[in-house]
Amino acid sequence: MYRLGVLLSGRGSNFESILNAIKSGYIKNAEIVVVLSNKADARGLEKAKESGIDAFFINPNGLQREEYDKKLVSLLKGYSVDYVILAGYMRILSDYFIESFENKILNIHPALLPSFKGLHAQRQALEAGVRFAGATVHFVTKELDSGPIIVQSVVPVFDADTEGSLSNRILKTEHKIYPLAVKLLSEDRIKLKGNRVMIEGDFLDADFFA
Ligand code: GAR
Which family would the database say this protein is a member of (predicted)? Predict the structure, then answer.
């Protein structure tokens, strides 16, 4: 059984989608053992506590990035975490953190990487005038939003879209691909080959995005 630690900064809907997938048995070989947040009022912290998961606000005030990350790493190691799941965690991780969990950190980004890295990815997509947008689950490396891609989803962009409507359309697919990526990971079906991810076996059925 893999032990997951989740980092989040807000609403926590991606965290919830993974938690629900564990509860329903879609993900069988992983459990969320701790949730950490850099925001005291993150709704995701409350959701975790409601489900009986240990959840803590770790105050970043007055701490250098690495000092803060050392606190996080020591907490996560204290919980014997195997994988770190970034679920709307809006702080850049230090090299120290990334080296502490090398190839063991997953992130979801609301764009078809390598396009539209960084903040406001959905707004960037609208401004670029693309006809398709989406989401990406990837391993975290030291370069922002650049690690090996595990799964992606694609959605259309309509002329009438606003940042809000496009974000909602993308978010719905995030709630499918993040649990899928964690399921594949927990079944040891994900292998890294350089900057590419190889997935063992079929993993998408015909109506996955229906
Ligand atoms: C999601 O759309 C996620 O892709 C995005 O923040 C949102 C969090 O929502 N993450 C990033 O932009 C990371 N660069 P949630 O708190 O409801 O999961």
Answer: Belongs to the GART family.
What DSSP assignment string belongs to 132-167? Answer: EEEEEEEE--SSTT-SPEEEEEEEE--TT--HHHHH
Which pLDDT value is given to residue 204? 77
Which residues approach ligand 1 with their CB closer than 6 A? 8, 10-14, 44, 87-88, 108-110, 171, 174
Neighbours of 166 (CB within 10 A): 21
> Whose structure tokens read 């969990």?
101
- Nearest partner of 96 among 63, 57, 137, judged by Cα: 63
Give distance in angstroms: CA of 107 to centre of ligand 1.
Answer: 9
Report ipTM for this prediction: 0.98
pTM of the model: 0.96
